[in-house]
Design goal:
Strand content: 5-15%
Number of strands: 2
Helix content: 40-55%
Number of domains: 2
Order of helices and strands: HHHHHHHEE
Strand order of the largest sheet: 1-2
Length: about 190
């Protein structure tokens, strides 16, 4: 195998992932962060491969930045999506609460994780019939859970369900799956 073959495969994966992200109506900045392609190349992909009237819109402006969207009542969608992000390896295997805040050993926006993010989101859309979380919110959820400074995953000691909780909450809410009281992250096993 030649070095050029590896470069060709990497470039092909970047383009394929970018097209999937475009199909999910991701913003240009999101596609750039997860694929490494330039803004100009992303725009050219959109013009070349997405036909007018195909139902794919280009969103403009800032990406979502409010974690309250995931904490409101009826946030079962966010919990289902978080489970998919864990299942597909978008989020690190160990919980965000168990990591140091400055742990950057595995950066979240990357080409391989971008492909996993697409798989997780597509599965979420198939599993949740009336999904209310769009792709940009899914990206924000993954980044916010990975950072762990505003929201985090909290594991239930009774049923092992992953719960999204506020990082600075004075009292942990009950588990959304079984109603048991959640434990503080300091008491959780580090292998999660």
């Amino acid at each position: 195998m030649r070095v050029t073959d590896d470069r060709y495969n990497r470039d092909r994966l970047r383009l394929e992932t970018a097209l999937r992200l475009i199909g999910h109506e991701a913003r240009t900045q999101t596609i750039r962060r997860w694929t490494g392609l330039s803004d100009d190349r992303i725009r050219k992909l959109f013009r070349s491969y997405i036909r007018p009237g195909a139902g794919v819109r280009r969103h403009r402006g800032k990406s979502p930045q409010q974690v309250g969207f995931f904490l409101r009542g009826g946030s079962d969608d966010a919990h289902a999506l978080a489970a998919m992000l864990l299942l597909f390896g978008v989020l690190p295997a160990r919980t965000v609460a168990a990591r140091a805040p400055d742990d950057a050993s595995s950066p979240l926006p990357s080409l391989s994780r971008g492909r996993q993010l697409c798989e997780a989101y597509e599965t979420y859309r198939r599993v949740v019939p009336q999904a209310r979380i769009d792709f940009e919110h899914a990206v924000f959820l993954a980044i916010a859970l990975n950072a762990g400074d505003e929201i985090r995953l909290q594991w239930c000691h009774s049923c092992d369900a992953a719960n999204i909780t506020e990082h600075s909450a004075l009292r942990l809410p009950p588990c959304r799956a079984c109603g048991a009281t959640l434990r503080d992250a300091a008491t959780m096993s580090p292998d999660r």
